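TL;DR need structure tokens for one chain.
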Amino acid sequence: MRKSLLKKRGVSPVIATVLLIAMVVVIALIIFMWFKGLTQEKILKFDQNIELVCPDVSFYAEQGSNGVIIENTGDVPIFSLKVQEESGRSYETKNIDQLDLDWPNTGLNPGEIYESSCSPLGERVVFIPVLAGTSEEGEKSYTCDKKWGVELE
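>> reply
TL;DR here they are.
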């Protein structure tokens, strides 16, 4: 019985070392990619993180006789709007400039009113603000969370 135990061989030390190094490299890559996904590029507006500016956005949207009327009632310029049209259980999100060519290139400044010549289709329409900010790479846009949006009345 002792002879059979001596004939069994294990993994060579060279192969074991290569496997250990490969496992460490794979684990390090997984951790690196995980941390990279957690950190996003910082976009600033009014010298603060743009996410903190979204609660300060205030605007009003209503269905007018010829289309949609949007008024910026806050102190934050709105660069663009995402239009989320819900029908039943499905929804579609588009940029407002895809729906109407009259959206101002500079956005909607505080106190300005925008009148659209077209009406969005859908049982429920939500306008979600898009803000412009600066980052290390230049100007970038940031879409606020849907909770800061306004439903069409």
